[in-house]
Amino acid sequence: MSEAKTPTPTPPGDTYKGWVFKWTNYIKGYQRRWFVLSNGLLSYYRTQAEMGHTCRGTINLATATITVDDACNFVISNGGAQTYHLKASCEVERQRWITALELAKAKAVRMQAESDDSGDDFPSSSPRITQGGGSQNSEVQSALRTLSNKVEDLSTCNDLISKHGSALQRSLAELDGLRLTGEAGDKIRQVTERATLFRITSNAMINACRDFLTLAQTHSKRWQKALQAEREQRVRLEETLEQLAKQHNHLERAFRGAAQANASPDNKGAAGPGKGEASDEDDDNEFFDAMEEAPEFITVPADPQFHKRSSSNISGLNSELCADDQSLNEEPLAMNQESPSQELVPLKKRRTRIPDKPNYSLNLWSIMKNCIGKELSKIPMPVNFNEPISMLQRLSEDLEYHELLDKAAKCQNSLEQMCYVAAFAVSAYSTTVYRTGKPFNPLLGETYELDRKRESGYRSLCEQVSHHPPAAAHHAISDRGWTLRQEITVASKFRGKYLSIMPLGTIHAVFEKSNNHYTWKKVNTTVHNIIVGKLWIDQSGEIDVVNHTTGDRCHLKFAPYSYFSRDVARKVTGVVMDKDGKAHYVLSGTWDEKMEFSKVMQSSRGGENGTEGKQKTVYQTLKARELWRRNPLPDGAETMYYFTALALTLNEPEEGVAPTDSRRRPDQRLMEEGRWDEANAEKQRLEEKQRTARREREREAASQRTSSQSEEAVDEDSVTDPSLKGK
């Protein structure tokens, strides 16, 4: 292999060029390419003529790794995206490239680190020096960086010399140990090559040393002047600080003496005007000293004058929020005072753990490949894809953040109440972020009762009212002034790569005190990576929360996840408007973490004449405040199906529940206990029993329709018989 240029290793920053064989594919193998190493970048071309217009590839050495395969081969890779398998004509040529590449990589890494730290080095010193001193300091810093680079080059070369020197010593030792055999020629040739490598590396270090010495001689006088100026400036600063310390000490002693003189008891109480004025001055001084903490109190939102000066009436929401929180905290105390006998009955201690989820493996594709396009409720699924609660219990989890409705029931303003209701609608999805398991399909007539009157003041009841299509009814009532009800039907489709779940039905919330009636629907849920990859859940769509009493409306938008979006994941935005369409509050946050609200002070829209096109409405709002935040998961939740604290108690056995309660389902109980094989068998038995009962009901309904149709036909014949017309 020939080269147009055979340079010796040079200091980093200089260009290194040459022909190297590069691996292309298994058909063509290694092909000859022209490589150029410059400024930490290694580029290659098919020919030297292509350097002006076509680059076949470039790799940044700052993030690359350089490895040696054998005598002539070496590999350059930046972590998988780019990998060059190269081969030199001989070991000496390969070592020249390795030396040049390592030096270039060392410099590229230093340059990258300096560029990251450059913003922190200069601004801290520039404000304290004059213009002339700033240019001088910049020149010194530049020279120091250059010297530092040269020292690093010397260090790199020193390491290479040590490595090659050790290899040369080993070869010489082997040569000395040889007796005249057939291997003598090979060993002598190897020693010669290693001596050549050592000479090349030594030359590189000598060149680096020469450059370092030249640079040091050029800048030595400037460094001495700069260091002397810095030393003199430091001395002046020390003298100034010493003078300031003396003045401060003198003022402090004078102040203490005046304070002791004024604080002495019965010190000529009927003193003249001079003494009285001095006392007033001391009082004023004490007042102004206390003013250092005054700003902390001036910014308290409770000050009504502060809100008047800001030309807005926002104190209502803040004061009501504080009042609500206080009333919620004081309410249990009031209840206990009214009925002291309740204190003797302790609250039931709920469980905080369930058995850990077993680690069973199952091939999902073997089950799902024949189910594409079918209704999910008609697919026989093993419990491996379930979680040990039913769909009715999952509906009851919507009350995880019932305190939002408790606060909404205390609001005087319907628009503020709308903020809490909208946050409650969003909070229902926070329990699903890690919950990729499918809840059990309830049996027809199955119920679930959640009684939390003593702990939280509400009671909830769910029932499966239809089997095909599956439909459930949910009703919850609270002693704190609200009622929640919903009827829901879930339509689901398996699309091959993802599972789409479309909830159908309306949720109603009614508040007794204000008689406000709110309704909204649920958004679609998508389970991704059904076949390959890790399962993850996304919520997308839009929700309109409507107050049918006042006409207020809140439009919530759940942004779908996108790989190319710059917004935060799981983002939710919304605007609370009155019946006239005027915006009063802006809601923002994520459905898995928190929601915040901001009061709208002013809004502006695009031009109505169409010249400006479609423009987004701009809301000028006050500082956002937190409306809701997700509770942390219990310890060890990843081994307990990622259940929340409430979900862990939903399937806890309780006395006095109905025979149709979900807690009594044997397959669900067996799965919770980790007996999945028995749970699968029991699940199949229950589903087959339900299908048999359904077929029996359909036969009875068909026979009833047939008998009724035959009776109607007899009645028609009796009326239309000609023989009966004359009678």
UniProtKB/TrEMBL annotation:
Residues 114-143, 258-283, 653-727 are annotated as: Disordered. Residues 13-106 form the PH domain. Keywords: Coiled coil, Lipid transport, Lipid-binding, Membrane, Phosphoprotein, Transport. GO terms for biological process: lipid transport. It is found in: Membrane. GO terms for cellular component: cytosol; perinuclear endoplasmic reticulum; plasma membrane. Gene3D superfamilies: 2.40.160.120, Pleckstrin-homology domain (PH domain)/Phosphotyrosine-binding domain (PTB). CDD domains: PH_OSBP_ORP4 (cd13284). It is a peripheral membrane protein. Residues 220-254 form a coiled coil. Pfam families: Oxysterol_BP, PH. One of its GO terms (molecular function) is sterol binding. Residues 661-702 have a biased composition (Basic and acidic residues). Belongs to the OSBP family. PANTHER family: OXYSTEROL-BINDING PROTEIN 1, OXYSTEROL-BINDING PROTEIN-RELATED. This is Oxysterol-binding protein. It comes from Neolamprologus brichardi (Fairy cichlid). The lineage of its organism: Eukaryota, Metazoa, Chordata, Craniata, Vertebrata.
